[in-house]
């Protein structure tokens, strides 16, 4: 006898619950404005945590601009299906990744979907991806407070926390503040705010130039009484590394941004140790 | 007798058609990735065109991160309602603006809406805003190929064209290419591609540093055989002006980015003169 829609929904909810129960800490990386470096924070956080012998999954729910595969250097890989469900792509020993871009035949193909279809896809990623046991799942959301982050907050009721990424200028901070109100309203704990692209050191004259200003993220954290996780400067090498699919946390000794980022990773770990 | 839903829909479609028929050229400004300067292109394009004695409207359909009001310095204004419909905010003699942020009571309030409600709002903006006669309507879309740009392309069947904004690095160009496929699939003419944040001139040593690389937008235009509208360099003053709500096209003689931008405006005007 074919299953009814209700039966299917109940079974999917059961699979989702079982799947999520095997993952210890689940984090959402969110921003109000686009282009503030949310995906690069998510990718580098996942990478840095995987180097500490923890088992990590990274899930890209940015359906229209899925960039984690490119930043991880796995853009030519594809998700497969086994008896256990959808198999994530193994990026490294302790790091697995899932993104809509790992399903698409053609990387130029835009996903022209309205909200309800996105919700269905995100739910399927949560219920049917065979992550196995994980220490951390990092979810990279598109900017804003729409269908994708809303689906994550509603479908993962025990979300450990949200990391909010902003750049320092007012326009970005204005939108980051909205993200903060959003996660609070959905009862998601706030890990803290990261101020990205904060100051640029000219590689020629070594003078610091605040292209996107400086301090806006830190001020927001103080005003809203949430932790300030740290500031990451802009480095042109960083853009090059992201395009090449190389995580910049691998260059700890050479790059200012890498050193700053690793301090932020320690703070995220501390956050989980208090839970 | 109360109207049925069908009657209401027919009447709204009629109002939308009437409203749009009074607007000569309608442009969508779109990007794949967020944070590439789409809103600032839209705001400065509207501003520059309004200085040529043309009547301009700017419509912000970025429901979750509406920034045009802030960039135009009208963030404390509110939309009003008259017998003719929703009255846009008058920014200057020839420039009117509409944004969801001009309706919200509290600027920190996130709009936590799923796709279908966004579509309803966008449709209402198109059918019920009393723009009057306009030479140009510039629509600023959120990044990606989701509900908002899809609604615009479907609801304005005679859209004059789409302006695609990208930054030069591969990650952004990858997403811009998706936007290009998106607008082509929806039969919207492509005005061309703008390469924003292309090169940075250090204000201290005057050396050029390609923070986000250089040339990616131009290469994409060549590969896809669409016009390349021009490249705009990064200037820290620009971020300051955007935060203060001052359009940078007002500084033609002083700023490299302003000079570059005005050339792009001329190209958009040329595009309309061929139609």
Write up this protein.
2 copies of one chain form a homodimer. The first copy, chain A, is α/β, with parallel strands linked by helices. Chain A is built from 9 helices and 12 strands. In chain A, β5 and β6 form a beta hairpin. In chain A, the strands form 3 sheets. The first copy, chain A, has an 8-stranded mixed β-sheet, with helices on both faces. Chain A has helices at residues 5-21, 38-50, 68-72, 115-128, 147-155, 170-185, 216-224, 236-244, 256-273; strands spanning 23-30, 56-60, 80-82, 85-87, 89-92, 95-99, 134-140, 161-166, 190-195, 200-201, 208-209, 228-231. The N and C termini of chain A lie far apart (45 Å). At the A-B interface, α4, α6 and α8 of A face α4, α6 and α8 of B.
Which characteristics define this entry?
homodimer, alpha/beta, eight-stranded mixed beta sheet, two-stranded antiparallel ribbon, 12 strands
State the end-to-end CA separation of chain A. 45 Å
Oligomer: homodimer
Order of helices and strands of chain A: HEHEHEEEEHEHEHEEEHEHH
Biggest sheet descriptor of chain A:
8 strands, mixed
Give the overall pLDDT of chain A as a whole number.
93
Helix content of chain A: 40-55%
Structural class of chain A: alpha/beta
How would you summarize this macromolecular structure in one to three sentences?
By secondary structure, chain A is an alpha/beta fold. Chain A has nine helices and twelve strands.
């Amino acid at each position: 006898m074919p299953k009814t829609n209700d039966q299917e929904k109940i079974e999917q909810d059961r699979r989702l619950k079982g799947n999520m129960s095997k993952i210890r800490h689940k984090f959402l990386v969110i921003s109000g404005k686009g282009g503030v470096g949310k995906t690069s924070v998510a990718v580098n956080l996942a990478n840095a945590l995987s180097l500490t012998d923890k088992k990590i999954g990274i899930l890209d729910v940015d359906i229209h601009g899925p960039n984690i595969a490119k930043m991880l250097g796995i853009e030519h890989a594809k998700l497969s299906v086994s008896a256990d469900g959808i198999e994530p792509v193994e990026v490294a020993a302790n790091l697995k990744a899932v993104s809509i871009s790992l399903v698409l035949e053609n990387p130029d193909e835009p996903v022209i979907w309205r909200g309800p279809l996105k919700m269905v896809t995100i739910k399927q990623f949560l219920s049917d991806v065979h992550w196995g046991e994980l220490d951390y799942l990092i979810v990279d959301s598109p900017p804003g407070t729409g269908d994708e982050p809303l689906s994550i907050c509603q479908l993962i009721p025990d979300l450990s926390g949200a990391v909010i990424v902003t750049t320092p200028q007012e326009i970005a901070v204005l939108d980051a503040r909205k993200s903060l109100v959003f996660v609070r309203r959905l009862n998601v704990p706030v890990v803290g705010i990261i101020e990205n692209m904060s100051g640029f050191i000219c590689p020629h004259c070594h003078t610091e130039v605040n292209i996107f200003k400086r301090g806006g993220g830190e001020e927001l954290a103080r005003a809203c009484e949430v932790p300030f996780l740290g500031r990451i400067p802009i480095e042109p090498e960083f853009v090059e590394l992201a395009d090449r699919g190389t995580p910049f946390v691998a260059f700890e000794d050479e790059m200012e941004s890498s050193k700053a980022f690793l301090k932020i990773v320690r703070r995220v770990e501390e956050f989980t140790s208090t839970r």
